[in-house]
Amino acid sequence: MTTDQPRSTEADMHVAAHLRDHDFDWYAALQFAPAGKRTDLMALFAYLAEIGRVRGQVSEPMPGEIRLQWWRDTLTGTAHGAVEANPLAHRLLQAIERHAIPTAPLLAVLDGRTFDLYDDAMPSTGDFEGYAGEVWSGPISLAASILSGHSPARFADAAGHGGVALAVVRTMESFPVWAARGQCLLPKDMMEEAGLARDVLRAGQPTEELTNALVRFAAYGAEHLDKSAQSLREMPRAAYPGFLPLALVRSSLKATLRWAANPFAKPLSMPRWRRLFGLWRASKRMPDI
After folding, report:
1. Backbone angles phi, psi at 121, to 5 degrees
2. What gap in Å lies between CA 205 and CA 80, rounded to an integer?
3. What is the reported pLDDT for 101?
4. So what's the pLDDT on residue 8?
5. What parts of the chain have a pLDDT lower than 70?
6. What is the pLDDT, as a whole number, of residue 289?
7. Cα–Cα distance between 44 and 40 in angstroms, integer?
8. pLDDT value at position 4?
């Protein structure tokens, strides 16, 4: 594995702009990564951001499936046409080669995001953890591996729990969008415990049952975040930038109680200046998140 890489290219700038526009938290967090690895990490998370956007770019599942299949073909070396024409794909493949990144976790992201293309309910918390593992935990392990030089397996526990916590917050942050289009990303068993019917999500009116379900969901995310924080204390310091956005997760979880009273009114979010300050402060106190 080598960490040498050329100066920033036009493709690098495209990837950085893509990540800044579509996942500002990771873009800002990676500013704390070593310069020699930063652009490759940005290619990894820009890929995640691109895949996460697919549902919002299509009106029905089939075009989304086709887009995801193109990425599968790209990652497995069977894509038709010049992959180099896509600067994000080109830089991602360079990062894979440079750091000997296993492609299985990147392919798993596509499997997880395939669920997003449909309006099926999330069956259970166990299924949600599997989804979070594919979408976030695997890539976080890869980022920690690139940063530290250790195997991704070294970070399985910290990234596994951290990925669930991150998925919880991202699910709540996008609540108005997926609820309006008829999706149901809250685990079904958690909804049943709160007495929440799926029709309430589409109706767009706050209810006590909805508030209770979201508060339970946030508590579930906080439990996983605490477990991730405990594991992170045993991780090499070099890996810390790969976990930095989890500090923002904790802030969002704390804000849930007020937001959950009427989640249709406005998204669960923080202004960018607070996110930047939160990341800077967390960078000084890692591994505490």
Report:
1. -70, 145
2. 47
3. 95
4. 63
5. 1-8, 79-82
6. 85
7. 6
8. 47
What span, in angstroms and rounded, lies between the C-alpha atoms of 53 and 271? 21
In the chain, the amino acid numbered 130 is G
Q: Are 149 and 89 in contact (CB under 8 A)?
A: no
Output the CA–CA distances (angstroms, integers) from residue 133 to 66, 157, 164, 263, in the order listed. 23, 11, 7, 26
Task: Please name the residue ranges forming H helices in 233-271.
Answer: 246-254, 256-259
| Phi, psi dihedral angles at 184 (to 5 degrees) | -145, 90
Distance CA 235, CA 251 (A): 22
Q: What are phi and psi of 209, to 5 degrees?
A: -65, -40
Please state, in angstroms and rounded to a whole number, the distance separating the CA atoms of residues 191 and 197.
7
φ, ψ of residue 172 to 5 degrees: the values are -70, -35
Report which of 189, 193, 177 is spatially closest to residue 116, judged by C-alpha positions.
177
pLDDT tens for 252-267 read 999 998 999 999 988 8
Distance in angstroms (rounded) separating the CA atoms of residues 147 and 61: 36
Q: What is the DSSP letter of 219?
A: H
Q: Which two tokens stand for residue 37?
A: 């690895």
- The letter for the amino acid at 82 is A
pLDDT at 80: 63
The per-residue pLDDT for 7 is 55
Residue 2's pLDDT is: 43
Of 37, 8, 53, 72, nearest to 143 by C-alpha is 37
**Which residues have CB under 8 Å from 188's CB, separation 6+?**
121, 122, 123, 124
Predicted pLDDT of residue 3: 45
Residue 128: count other Cβ atoms within 10 Å of its Cβ.
23
